[in-house]
Amino acid sequence: MYLGGIYDIACYQVHPLKFVQGLAKAAERRGTQIFCFSPVTAIDRERTGYQVRGSGFVSHANEVILATNGYVPSFAHWVRSQLWSVASRVVVTAPQTGLLPEKMPTVSDSSTEYHYFRLMEHGRLLFGGRPPILPKIARMFPQMVQVPTEFEWEGRVAISWDGLPHFGRAPGGYWFAAGYTGHGIVLSTALGQLIAEAISGKPLEKSLANTLGPSNMKRRPFSRRWRAFR
Ligand SMILES: Cc1cc2nc3c(=O)[nH]c(=O)nc-3n(C[C@H](O)[C@H](O)[C@H](O)COP(=O)(O)OP(=O)(O)OC[C@H]3O[C@@H](n4cnc5c(N)ncnc54)[C@H](O)[C@@H]3O)c2cc1C
Question: Measuring from atom 14 of ligand 1, which residue has the nearest CA?
Answer without folding.
Answer: 182
